[in-house]
Amino acid sequence: MKYVIGIDLGTSGTKTVLFDTLGNVVASHTVEYPMYQPQNGWAEQDPRDWANAALETLKKVVSESGVDNSDILGIGISGQMHGLVMLDENGDVIRNSIIWCDQRTAKECEEITQRVGAKRLIEITANPALPGFTASKILWVRNNEPQNYSRCRKILLPKDYVRYILTGEFATEVSDAAGMQLLDIGKRCWSDEVLEKLDIDKSLLAKCYESVEVTGGINKKTADYTGLKEGTIVVGGAGDNAAAAIGTGVVEDKKAFTTIGTSGVVYAHASKIAIDPKGRVHTFCSAVPGEWLVMGVTQGAGLSLKWFRDNFCNAEIETAKQMNVDPYYLMDKEVDTVMIGANKLLYLPYLMGERTPHLNSDARGVFFGLSAMHTKKDMLRAVMEGVSYSLKDCVSVLNEMGLEISDMMACGGGGTSSVWRQMLADLYACPVKTITSKEGPALGVALLAAVAAGVYPSVQEACAAVVKVKNEQQPVAENTEQYKKYYEIYKRLYLSLKDDFSALGSLK
């Protein structure tokens, strides 16, 4: 038997999984690490924590599995996107990484837009300037920590710093590099025009590969520590959402997935590049060579339900403890007793502002239509439906761009709820499925390694062999028609409240 490894570098921890080439888990280990918030709205992590976690988890899965290291064909790395890692001339970390959720770079986003031009920036990088992306973080360090910027000799993304530690190579790949806002998304290479206008030296950036290409081999130091064989190939890998797409089999046109975690993501595969000129959704390079992905993001998806649970569902939490079940299980049971439309109650899930399709940090959560007849169960259903409407907003933008979706996977914590999946199926008017594996990004990048090692001839054939469907919710035509009425009101509510959101946000 032969094996491949997937390393999934997340925000809370790194999980490394050893799979056989059919996608079965042989060994898995996770190491957690902290996030630092030096000021309100800032978010940083120490890249050395990521490296140590990767080395420790690799050592564990190799030793615990007992497999011969010569049977491990390759390694793929998935990572949280957009983080800025700056190295000096010795390859040492200069400062903590400013990570994806950091919000300090509003002024730098304005600077990028002014230097490149709003329209031109979207034409090249497929996205408007956003605080989460890497380019604005680079400018922030240059503007605020010139001593650190002057020492910088190499800029890497989180997973690519781990690659450097494992292999000694400075390399990245297109799906993750696309989130830096320095890549020409259509040409899949660094944009000389953007780099010149932002005055960023191209030599600071790593060589850019396709996700399935070999970027290096395990070096002797790593081999000695982990038990891996020196020279074991390390492939490009992928950013977290691109890796999750491979792990869920979303590698062909008309296929998409919906993730309901703290935020919500709708991700669609596209064999031809599709860019929204309004910048409402993100277009990045796919981990499938020569193809793309388009994704919409809603900020307060699972967060909305967790907020409601933590503040209003103490009875469910206590009962769940006694029954030894998850509180969400009981909440699902309650929601299932309420009719579509939650007795004419609507919820706008803008607890943390919104991104798709509104890109409005002032937007806030709303219950609309609340009356004395409504119960906690109605409010619970309204929350879940409101998140579903926001995800439907994402799908609507994708459809407007010419991307047809007929096959939808569901993942993340919310994807485990059959009630929520049925809402999505009815709103999307297409089947919503889950898969047998829960490994997502780790499986995705392990499959990229399997393709590079010659186990499968293509990413699509690897997914066809390994990714298996477990559950499927079919849309109910009557439900779809019912939801249409409420969704139309939901869409109008934002337009009605937009100015008031801004007025409320400006109050001191």
Characterization of the model:
The protein is an alpha/beta fold. It folds into two domains: 234 residues, Nucleotidyltransferase, domain 5; 124 residues, ATPase, nucleotide binding domain (Nucleotidyltransferase, domain 5). The chain has 18 helices and 24 strands. Strands 1, 2, 3, 5, 13, 14 and 15 form a seven-stranded mixed beta sheet that branches. The protein has a seven-stranded mixed beta sheet with strand order 18-19-17-16-22-23-24. Strands 4-7 form a two-stranded antiparallel ribbon. The radius of gyration is 23 Å and the shape is globular. The relative contact order is 0.12. The mean pLDDT is 96.
Which properties best describe this structure?
single chain, Nucleotidyltransferase, domain 5, 2 domains, 7-stranded mixed sheet
Proportion of residues in helical segments: 40-55%
CATH class of the largest domain: Alpha Beta
Per the CATH scheme, the topology name of the largest domain is Nucleotidyltransferase, domain 5
Largest sheet data: 7 strands, mixed
Identify the CATH architecture of the largest domain: 2-Layer Sandwich
Strand content: 15-25%
- The average pLDDT score comes to 96
Poorly predicted parts: none
CATH superfamily heading of the largest domain: ATPase, nucleotide binding domain
Classify the secondary structure makeup into a structural class.
alpha/beta
How large is the count of helical segments? 18
- Overall morphology: globular
Rg is 23 Å
Task: Give the number of DSSP strands.
Answer: 24
The total number of structural domains is 2
What is the first-to-last residue Cα distance? Answer: 65 Å
